[in-house]
Amino acid sequence: MLTRRAHRFSRRARAGARLSIGAVRPAFAVWTRAFSENNLLTYASAIALQLLVALAALVFLAAALLHPLGATRIWAHTVIPALAAHVPVEWVRAVTWSVNREMSSDSTTLIVFGAVLALWEVSGAVRAVMGALNQIYSVSEHRGFVRRFGTSIGMALIVSVLLLVAVFIGGGAFEPGPVAVDGLERWLIPAVAIYLTIALLVQVAPAKRQPWGWVSAGSVVIVVGWLAVSAGYGWWITHVVDLHSPESALALILSVVGYLYASAITFLVGAQMDQLARKGGWRAVLGVDEE
Predict the structure, then answer these.
(1) Which of 54, 116, 182, 254 qualifies as a FRET site for 124, CA 20 to 30 Å off?
(2) CA neighbours within 13 Å on the CB side: how many for 283?
(3) Residues in the chain with pLDDT < 50?
(4) Those residues with Cβ within 8 angstroms of residue 109's Cβ, 6 or more apart along the chain or in another chain
(5) How far apart are CA 64 and CA 110, in angstroms?
(6) 246-263: per-residue pLDDT in tens?
(7) What is the pTM of this model?
(8) CB within 8 Å of 217: residues ≥ 6 apart
(9) Selection from 238, 235, 229 nearest residue 87 by Cα
């Protein structure tokens, strides 16, 4: 009796496994084809590389803006404690010395230099996004050199401002103060800034404008995915990577590059998902029509 029951359970388990595989296989085929035809991994690598350099430029600009904006609180009460809790004390001393020296120098010169550098590097990341979205949306790049660079620089300016707003407000830079932002606003405003950044890229970066309804839906998907990736990498840095080990510098660099790469993939997957849904509905996203 027990043997027969065991056989029946085994058959049901195998049938369930076949059903699950049968349900997943069409979606796997759709997304494998999308990644292959649109070179999503290659574009993600290009975007991540551009973002790595752009991130360094934005950090430099943010440090230069701390004193003029009266936002040194974010450095003293947010950044320093976070660094001290996870990285060697020598790193904290070196970074503190560098930032303090930057804040004590001529802020106007540093801000101008940092703004120009950040604008150029972020525009490079925007141009990488342009190429990826053109591929995903099957759009030919008809914009000339001047228009393409002008568009990327204009978008880079807006994106840089939105990202700096998200960082300063999310980090509590203006608490307390005459323009204090606290409570729900401290989380809501950065979330809106990130959403607008992504929506702007998806709407304006391709050579052909996309319908706003789909853009807004795709931006939500990307933001949710990016938050999940950020949470995962936050846990990785704080619980897995030992930044006090001899290999800490290499581990940190690889973690940052990996985070940017995962973020770029998340962005492209969200855009690809919208394209598939726009053409064939959500059944196309799940590969239902492939059966």
Answers:
(1) 254
(2) 5
(3) 1-2, 6, 9, 13-20, 177-180, 291
(4) none
(5) 6
(6) 777 788 888 889 999 999
(7) 0.79
(8) 274, 277
(9) 238
The size of the chain, in residues, is: 291
Residue 45 CA, chain-centre distance (Å), reads: 13
Extract the tokens encoding 283: 């059944």
Residues 6+ apart with CB under 8 A from 131: 43, 46, 141
* Residues 288, 291: Cα–Cα separation, whole Å: 6
pLDDT at 214: 57
- The span from the first CA to the last CA of the chain, in angstroms, equals 39
